[in-house]
Amino acid sequence: MQTSPPLLFTAGAFVALFIFISLYSFLSPHPIPISFSFSSSPTDQSRTFYDDPSLTYTIDKPISNWDEKRIAWLKLHPSFSAKTDTDRVLMISGSQPTPCPSYEGDHILLRSLKNKADYCRLHGIQLFYNTALLNPSMPTFWAKIPVIRAAMLAHPEADWVWWVDSDAIFTDMDFFPPLTRYRAHNMVVHGWPELIYEKKSWVSLNAGVFLIRNCQWAFDFMDEWASMGPSSPDYEKWGKILTSTFKDKMFKNSDDQSALVYLILTGKGGWRDKIYLENEYYFEGYWFEIVGRLENISARYNEMEMNGPAVLRRRHAERVFVSNAKQRDAQLRREKGAIKRRPFLTHFAGCQPCSGDRNKQYSGDNCTEGMYRALNFADDQVLRIYGFRHASLLSGNVQPLPFDYPHVGR
């Protein structure tokens, strides 16, 4: 029996499409997943916590058995459950849903977002930048908790969630937190034990940058943390408790940072055993003591590369940035402290670049100039991959880099 031409054409087109998808999936660094399931209804075997109608992303209803739910989801998605060299990290940052009062404030937020996007791209991690207030009763510094909670549910593949304030700038694009150091802990924050337990200072740590593990402990902890915030009927009471506990606290309302210090100081809830106080590197560093040293730091790095092996000056593709960064780290170790590494994160706490409602001890020029210096310092580390650098840390102009830089053309 002779096959009709339309049927032959249809069959040929299907075969050609199948061959194209197969070849593309093999050659592409991001293969196309091939699936021929047309059913939108989950089977009993494929059901996850997402199919539970009682699940809510809002903070008013606790999450239970998250570790088991997450494991079950990972089993259905084995590509995410496979062992890797490092834990999966999701970075979260954000800003207010409305424009800044000034164009410069919006511009600085854009530059800060680019800085985080650059860092995440170079290190192969995801970035979620939020501009929505997910819980109107938890504004300002409390707004991060509902966002982190929702992101943990949206990203069960992530082992860690990394909150970074919008006014914190990555100034060492090479460095990545030593996650293996934190295996026994569920939260990492920049802080000093002696300032917590002896001085009882509300600035003994900084809650604007922290890592929190995607686990049931984190959900329970955030519920406790949020119970001290403005969505709680005990908000006013907690303001009085925190103000009386921390004598250097200058305002009466309960804030996220004082609340976190209080939970660690008192041991309330038993949370502190799982919170790591990191102070061996600039997990986030005070901008005022950093920005004036950036030119000198650049000069010392150039000196290290000039006197070091030629591989440090060799041009490379952006996709192999991490391996090149490891070579610089190895050279820093060989220097045995003679050259200090760049500060990892420079935090412009108190500058309020969007609202302009900065701490009165800082001038607008100091904050704005400092942020541009830090942003361009970081941007030079990215632009070098593309063959350029800024003419100076306060210049928007760039200049091409000669071959074998910085050995020539400094």
From TrEMBL:
Name of the molecule in the record: Alpha-6-galactosyltransferase
Pfam families: Glyco_transf_34 (PF05637)
Transmembrane segments annotated in the record for this chain: 7-27
Keyword terms of this UniProt record: Glycoprotein, Glycosyltransferase, Golgi apparatus, Membrane, Signal-anchor, Transferase, Transmembrane, Transmembrane helix
Family: Belongs to the glycosyltransferase 34 family.
GO terms of molecular function: galactosyltransferase activity
Chain coiled-coil ranges: none
Subcellular location field: Golgi apparatus membrane
Known role: Probable glycosyltransferase that may be involved in the biosynthesis of xyloglucan.
Keyword Membrane among UniProt keywords: yes
Top-level taxon: Eukaryota
Main location group: Golgi
InterPro entries reported in the protein's UniProt record: Glyco_trans_34 (IPR008630), Nucleotide-diphossugar_trans (IPR029044)
Membrane topology note: Single-pass type II membrane protein
Keyword Transferase: yes
GO cellular component: endosome; Golgi membrane; trans-Golgi network
